[in-house]
Design goal:
Elements (H helix, E strand, L loop, with lengths): L6 H12 L8 H11 L3 H7 L3 H9 L15 H7 L4 H18 E2 L1 H8 L5 E5 L3 H6 L6 E2 L2 H7 L8 E5 L6 H10 L5 E4 L2 H8 L13
Parallel strand pairs: 1-5, 2-3, 2-4, 4-5
Helix pairs in contact: 1-2, 4-6
């Protein structure tokens, strides 16, 4: 019988054993589903950062007051409230996360690209204040004007690397770029924060204080 999965190992097991999940489900997927359904939404969001976008775009969950949810609600409860098939919701969460992973490059991979002969456009999608305080060498600040200038046929296959603070918000921009023809767009996994830990220790790490 398939074993229940510890929360800390859940994501790796889903990818390692579930693969492309069949429509009818499997014994392994059943137990993974049970583990996911019992988790609060806040914990699932940490495991699957793309979950919020996936739920809204595919099921219109979380986009307005009538379909909102709280962090302490379980995924099972959210599915019941919105009359959704839990298996369908879980499959979309996992597949969305896989798509996000495919958009990411590690700091080492980005560093290798920057130091290769291949042209790379490195774009900083943080605020101007953050950019002016510290940035990765060679990066350009992503203004609206610069963004608009990118959408031309000669840039469709260009390697474009986006980065933010911790690798979360740039995912939306990357997905939008790819959807509008810039297929060579990727993001720096972990953002400038991970870059400062693995590549350039001279860049100070920082925290954003949110009121």
């Amino acid at each position: 019988m398939a074993e229940l999965v510890d929360a800390a190992d859940l994501k790796s097991v889903v990818f390692g054993r579930a693969g492309s999940i069949p429509a009818g489900g499997t014994a392994d997927f059943f137990y993974m589903s049970k583990e996911l359904l019992d988790k609060p939404m806040s914990e699932l969001r940490e495991l699957f950062p793309s979950m919020k976008r996936a739920l809204f775009s595919s099921f219109h969950i979380g986009g307005c007051q009538s379909c909102s949810y709280s962090d302490d609600e379980s995924l099972q409860l959210v599915c019941e409230k919105n009359e959704l098939n839990p298996d369908d919701v879980i499959k979309e969460i996992i597949e969305s996360d896989k798509r996000d992973q495919e958009m990411m490059l590690s700091p080492r991979e980005v560093n290798e690209l920057i130091n290769s002969d291949k042209p790379v456009l490195l774009l900083d999608s943080r605020t101007r204040e953050e950019y002016e305080a510290l940035k990765i060498e060679g990066a350009q600040f992503l203004t609206q004007e610069l963004q608009n200038s990118l959408f031309t046929p000669e840039n469709y296959e260009k390697t474009i690397i986006l980065y933010d603070h911790t690798g979360q918000t740039a995912l939306d921009t990357c997905s939008w770029f790819q959807g509008h023809g810039l297929k060579g767009t990727r993001i720096l996994k972990g953002g400038i924060d991970l870059w400062s830990q693995e590549i350039d220790s001279d860049l100070p790490r920082y925290r954003l204080e949110i009121d």
